[in-house]
Amino acid sequence: MRKAAILLLIATMSMSLTACWSNREVNDIAIVSAIGIDQGNNGNIRLSLQLAVPLLIGTGSSQGGAGTTKLADTSGWVVSEEGATVMETYRSIQQKLPRQIFFSHSRVIIVGHSMAESGVSQVLDFFERYRESQMKSYFAVSATTASDVLNYLPKFERLSSEVIFEELKRRVLPTVRLVDFLNALQSEGVEPFAPILEITASENGESPYKNLVISGSAVFKEDKMIGKLDDNEARGLHWVLDTVKEGVVTIEIEEGRRKGRISAELEKVNVSRKMKIGESGKMEVRLHADVSANIYENTSDMDLEISENTKSVIDLFKKQIENRITGSIQKVQRELQSDIFGFGQSIYRRYPLTWKKSYREQWDTLFSEMETKIDVDVRVLRNGLTNKTIKISDSEVEQK
Amino acid sequence: MNSKAREDGTGLTGKLEEDLALFQGKMERCSDVEYHKFTLQSGKQGYLIFIAGMTDDTRLQMEVIDPLSRMESEQDLSGTLKTAGNGGNAKDLSGSSSDAGQLRTEMELEQGLTGLCKGDTIAILDGCRKILLVSLSKWEQRSVEEPASEPVIRGARDGFTESLQTNTTLIRRRLATPDLKVESIQVGTLSKTDMELVYLDSVVMPGLVDEVKQRIQRIVIDTVLESGYIEELICDNPFSVFPQVINTERPDRAVSGIVEGKVVILVDNTPFVLVVPGLFVETLQASEDYYQNYIFSTMTRFLRLGLAIGALVFPSIYIALTTFHQEMIPASLLLSIAASREAVPFPALIEAILMEASFEGLREAGIRLPRPVGQAVSIVGALVIGQAAVQAGIVSATLVIVVSFTGIASFIFPIYSQGLAFRVMRFPMMLLAGSLGLYGIFLGLLVLLIHLVKLRSFGVPYLSPIIPLQAAGLKDVFVRFPWWSMKERPLQTGKANLRRMKGNMRPRPPKS
């Protein structure tokens, strides 16, 4: 008994010898919510950290009664510094801060346009290697500089990083997490891409209010950005990658008395790809898109209760989707020549030996010669709450 | 035998004045003892000795003193007293070896005195060496009330009282069978506390009664004021915080234990009876679980289990996450925790210990304080700790939520003493979390688990039927199966007579 008591005492006392080793209180850390990297002077990099200031975030009740003035405010604080490496720069930012910089909750890593064009691999190494891992955070390219995006004053959310995070999470256009970006960078047969963030005016023309939007995708070759896809082309990329979760397809109706448009909301999209190598060694990719959609807007006078009409509408939808995908693929194949779709990787998976023997080395040229076949299946599930369209009565038309 | 007693100096001499002096000598400086002299019509004199306040005065007057004064000789004496004690149901009384409940004769002075102290009335007579004891005891008693520590919505409202006899009746009324045995044991050299072992002869776990008797007979102690004394003196592991003996104020709970093959120990002067062996899972089962809809009871059980774990580790997880593993907290939650902790001057560990301690203090004060003041304390406590402390920036609002949740959670145990164990263990867990983080929490939980697995109550593993696993026993652990499917008694204690229900009892609509 006495021995056990002594043992217990020693065990308890040794516990206190650790002295709360590596302990850090929540109010001793500076939480980084977003990281921005730009090109600095003399080949240096400029690292900007958006720090969340908890005092400004408040607990709701104690900070209540904020009016419109509060809208122009943010709880974030951007601190930046120039240096030779990310690590060194981050230490020199730390020098200026009373709290320990804490990277684990960084939502997004943003690279400035010029930085992206000159290559990102040397700045991303730190984020892959450091223990406060941010592999989960999103990766994006700013249309201008990264610090512009970080300094955006949000209307919704307290921090611009939250705005970016939520927008990227909604996946209206293809987005990418750092881990996926790095994987694409390091795998053969696939090249990375990243969404482009841009600050635009809320309304047309000059508006004091700005929006932070995803506009298109930046296409990389190796680690250098070589071009961009606009919104429509980026949507095509979305389809090819089978990452479409929501979206709208609109077609034009030319026939009938009243011309108009029909819009359908995508309910479920499934895109599968099949790779094939022909006798001549020519590669072919077959994309099959399986789409279910609901029609929610019809401005023409087409009666969707007639099955022939529905058929022709479906054909138009097919064509529209096909065009969207081919447009994107052609642009990437002909102009950018960077396999962001990962077709090479798919071939590698299907024909590993052939890939190693004859394709790997010259994939860049082979990619642009690849043939694509697209095959779309559309099902219209519902026509919305009504089958009729808003019609001016016949008699009134005749009177005119 | 008479002569032997006298030679030892422990009996009476037969001379009235000498015997009286003997009693008076023993009961010196006992102002509550009264001596009442009576004379039989034959001229023989005697004394009635009793303690004022422990005797039924009216009955003493009507059934003893009045008949005595009309009595011819001492031959009638025993008969009269017998009639008095038994409420008119006289029996033949011959010799001194009577063991009839309400009237007995003793030779030994010591035994006579013990009887006197327990409320019996003593009669001594000139020329008689026997001490006659009439049980006319009566004192103020609390009536049967709803048990304060284990209230229910649905279920019996009667609770045990301080009177041993009442308590036995409460059990007997629920089990009308001669199979129900009530064995009496006395413990305490000064208190001479009566105890009763109650069990069903055909159901009780084999060997359990002997083991309980043996453990109780071992006890030599001056007083037993409450069943807690016995509990601590008979448990298997005296160093454990966990209650290895269930204590309850509810007769239905005690009876359910008896029916499962357990032994119930009733102790005089306390409403808390002991049920042995006590198992861990029982402390999470309320008697109401068996009266209410079984689906609801199952839900309540899961809730209870979750809250029990919460009561043990919730503050420690808060400490571990906020001081070591901030990356594990979702980003937006971390920001609001950080915001609420912004002005707090203490580290999370100190903050949590401070709050937990003040909550425990509040709870303790709530019990100790005189009723009229009690309400004031709860208001002040809620205001000071809940609001003012947060506004003054001494503690964070998040922590107040953590502490109040834990506070509520620690009260969900149907067996209060298990709640105490969890409440105590919370503090070492907090220290472990504060020094080693999540690693410390799991280390602590592991040590607790090892202890619990090792623990036994009267030979039955404490964690059974979970460890060692008995599949049939699980019908009444996490879920409460409907009554018609629980056909057997729990295996660990009901081995002697497993079947408790016939065939298929599931109710069905009549076939027509």
Structure characterization notes:
The complex is a heterodimer of chains A (400) and B (512). Chain A has 400 residues and is α/β, with parallel strands linked by helices. Chain A has 14 helices and 14 strands. Chain A has helices at 2-17, 54-57, 86-96, 113-118, 121-129, 146-150, 160-170, 178-186, 231-240, 307-336, 343-350, 352-359, 363-369, 394-399; strands spanning 29-39, 45-52, 76-83, 100-102, 108-111, 138-142, 176-177, 193-201, 210-221, 224-229, 248-253, 260-277, 283-298, 371-382. In chain A, the strands form two sheets. In chain A, strands 1, 2, 3, 4, 5, 6, 7, 8, 9 and 10 form a ten-stranded mixed β-sheet that branches. The N and C termini of chain A lie far apart (108 Å). The relative contact order of chain A is 0.10. Mean pLDDT of chain A is 86; it is low at 60-72. Chain B has 512 residues and is of the alpha+beta class. Chain B contains 17 helices and twelve strands. In chain B, strands 1-2-4-5-3 form a five-stranded antiparallel β-sheet, sandwiched between helices. In chain B, strands 6-7-9-10-8 form a five-stranded antiparallel β-sheet, with helices on both faces. In chain B, helix 10 (294-323) runs parallel beside helix 15 (416-436), helix 12 runs antiparallel to helix 13 (371-391) and helix 15 (416-436) runs antiparallel to helix 16. The model of chain B is unreliable at 1-7 and 85-101 (pLDDT under 50). The chains are: A alpha/beta (400), B alpha+beta (512). Chain A binds chain B through residues 15-16, 18-20, 22-27, 29, 31, 33, 52, 54-55, 57-59, 102, 104-105, 107, 132, 162, and chain B through 322-324, 326-327, 331-332, 334-342, 344, 347-349, 397, 431-432, 434-437, 440.
Total beta-strand segments of chain A: 14
Structural class label of chain A: alpha/beta
The number of helical elements of chain A comes to: 14
User: Order of strands across the biggest sheet of chain B?
Assistant: 1-2-4-5-3
Compressed to H and E, one letter per element, the order of chain B equals: HHEEHHEHEEHEEHHEHEEHHHHHHHEEH
Distance between the termini of chain B: 78 Å
Number of helices of chain B: 17
Taken from the alpha-carbon principal axes, the silhouette of chain B is: elongated
Mean of pLDDT of chain A: 86
CA radius of gyration of chain B: 30 Å
Beta percentage of chain B is 5-15%
- Main sheet specs of chain B: 5 strands, antiparallel
Q: Which consecutive residue ranges of chain A, at least 5 long each, have pLDDT under 50?
A: 60-72
What is the radius of gyration of chain A computed over CA atoms, rounded to a whole number of angstroms?
27 Å
Number of domains of chain B: 3
Oligomer category = heterodimer
The termini of chain A sit apart by 108 Å
Most extensive chain interface and residues per partner: A-B, 26 and 28 residues
Number of strands of chain B: 12
Task: Work out the helicity level of chain B.
Answer: 40-55%
